[in-house]
Amino acid sequence: MLNLIDSKEILEKEIIDNEMVLVYFGGKSCGVCVDMKPKVENILSKYSKIKGLYIDVEKSNKIAIGYSIFTIPAIFLFVQGKETIREVRHISIRDLDTKIDRYYNMIFG
């Protein structure tokens, strides 16, 4: 599940407080973002220890700019506070799942 957040402070706290955090940057006016969101949530349902966060860039564009997001959708995976995956625009759900699985097994194996 992706939890909507609208604060840079909350985002940074979640990244520090959780071993793995997936951040999905999207927007309601982006058709690809709307279509991809349930697919990302489906991936997250397989990984119970990953914290899922959603940032609506139309409402929280300062957060997006702070992470150099200039096109959406964008997906980041933070592992132990460090950005390990950054996927932007043309995102393969299958490849994303494979990458997440690799890190998940290394951390929680």
UniProtKB/TrEMBL annotation:
Tagged with keyword Flavoprotein: no
Limits of the Thioredoxin domain: 9-89
SUPFAM superfamilies: Thioredoxin-like (SSF52833)
Keyword presence, Acetylation: no
A GO term from the CC aspect: cytoplasm
Domain of life: Bacteria
Keyword annotations: Redox-active center
GO molecular function: protein-disulfide reductase activity
PANTHER family, per the entry: GEO12009P1
Family as reported in the entry's similarity comment: Belongs to the thioredoxin family.
Protein name (Swiss-Prot/TrEMBL): Thioredoxin family protein
Top-level taxonomy: Bacteria, Bacillati, Bacillota, Clostridia, Lachnospirales
